[in-house]
């Protein structure tokens, strides 16, 4: 399985992000918690896929 989450001290001060982006996992979790659907999140952040969102939520 491809890793979709990365932690790199040089990216967002080491906060977990979606690999290949600077989009932190906590942003995705906050949006899901606020009631956004994965499709709405992808619309807001086109670099993401629904698989990225699922990986962040796991």
Query: How many domains is the backbone divided into?
Result: 1
Percent range for β-strand residues = 5-15%
CATH superfamily: Winged helix-like DNA-binding domain superfamily/Winged helix DNA-binding domain
Number of DSSP-assigned strands: 2
- Counting DSSP H or I runs of 4 or more residues, the number of helices is 3
Mean pLDDT score, rounded? 94
Proportion in helices = 40-55%
Q: What is the annotated CATH architecture?
A: Orthogonal Bundle
Rounded radius of gyration (Å): 11 Å
**Shape assignment:** globular
Order of helices and strands: EEHHH
In a nutshell, what does this entry contain?
The chain has one domain: Winged helix-like DNA-binding domain superfamily/Winged helix DNA-binding domain (Arc Repressor Mutant, subunit A, Orthogonal Bundle), CATH 1.10.10. The protein is built from three helices and two strands.
Labels describing this entry:
58 residues; mainly alpha; Arc Repressor Mutant, subunit A; 3 helices; two-stranded antiparallel ribbon; 7% strand
How would you characterize the overall build of this protein?
The chain has 58 residues and is mainly α. It has one domain (5-57): Winged helix-like DNA-binding domain superfamily/Winged helix DNA-binding domain (Arc Repressor Mutant, subunit A), CATH 1.10.10. The protein has 3 helices and 2 strands; from the N terminus they run ββααα. Strands 1-2 form a two-stranded antiparallel sheet. The longest helix has 9 residues, at 25-33. The chain is globular, with a radius of gyration of 11 Å.
């Amino acid at each position: 399985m491809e890793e979709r989450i990365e932690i790199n001290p040089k990216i967002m001060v080491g906060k977990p992000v979606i690999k290949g982006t600077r989009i932190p996992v906590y942003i995705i979790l906050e949006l899901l918690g606020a009631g956004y659907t994965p499709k709405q999140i992808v619309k807001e952040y086109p670099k993401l896929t629904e698989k990225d969102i699922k990986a962040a939520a796991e």
